[in-house]
Design brief:
Mean pLDDT: 76
Number of helices: 4
Strand content: 25-35%
Largest sheet: 8 strands, antiparallel
Distance between the termini: 24 Å
Order of helices and strands: HHHEEEEHEEEE
Structural class: alpha+beta
Strand order of the largest sheet: 1-2-3-4-8-7-6-5
Low-confidence stretches: 1-25
Number of strands: 8
Radius of gyration: 17 Å
Shape: globular
C-alpha cells in the first residue's frame, strides 16, 4: 500500500501529470473553457465556431462544431452539458480516418502519435480497435481508435 501511495505522489507531482490535467484546454478556444460553465457561457467563449443544437430525443441542448482542428486533424466537436441548465459534462472529438493511412496528412499522423505516446499503452485491443483511458484530476480522458483510423477523444468531467 505504501508503494502505491508513493507512486501516486510521484505521478501527481510529475510534469506529465500537469500536461494531462491541462489536456482539456489544448486547442484554440479551449483556453476559456472549464467544467463549471453552462451552455451559454461556453457558447460565448467559443463564439461563432460552435452552433447550439437540440437533441430531438432528449430535448437537451449541446454545442457542435462541424470542423474543429485539434492535434493536426479535423474533428467534429461536441460539448455536452448535464441536465438542462447544468454544467459542461463532456467534450467529444470525433475524427473520421482515411482507409489508407498514407493518405492521412502528416500533421494529423504526428498529432495522433503524440497523443498515443502521452496516453501510454492501450487498456484494450480487440479486433483492431484500441482504447486508452487516463484519469486526470479534473476529467477522465478516453481515446478509442478504430481499424480504419477513426478516432474519438472523450473528456468526461469527474
Amino acid at each position: 500500500m505504501r508503494h502505491i501511495i508513493i507512486a501516486a505522489a510521484i505521478f501527481l507531482c510529475s510534469p506529465w501529470a500537469s500536461s494531462a490535467r491541462a489536456e482539456i484546454f489544448d486547442g484554440p478556444g479551449f483556453e476559456a473553457i472549464n467544467w463549471n460553465m453552462h451552455i451559454a457561457d461556453a457558447e460565448r467563449a467559443l463564439g461563432s465556431r460552435v452552433a447550439r443544437v437540440r437533441n430531438d430525443h432528449t430535448g437537451s441542448e449541446y454545442l457542435r462544431a462541424a470542423s474543429y482542428h485539434y492535434l493536426g486533424c479535423t474533428y467534429v466537436l461536441l460539448l455536452n452539458f448535464d441536465n438542462p441548465g447544468g454544467t459542461l459534462s463532456e467534450i467529444v472529438l470525433t475524427h473520421r480516418g482515411d482507409a489508407k493511412a498514407e493518405a492521412t496528412e502528416k500533421s494529423c499522423r504526428d498529432g495522433l502519435s503524440a497523443l498515443r505516446e502521452k496516453m501510454g499503452r492501450p487498456i484494450s485491443l480487440d479486433a483492431g480497435v484500441r482504447e486508452w483511458r487516463l484519469k486526470a484530476t479534473t476529467a477522465t480522458i478516453t481515446v478509442i481508435e478504430g481499424r480504419r483510423g477513426d478516432l474519438q477523444i472523450r473528456y468526461s468531467a469527474k
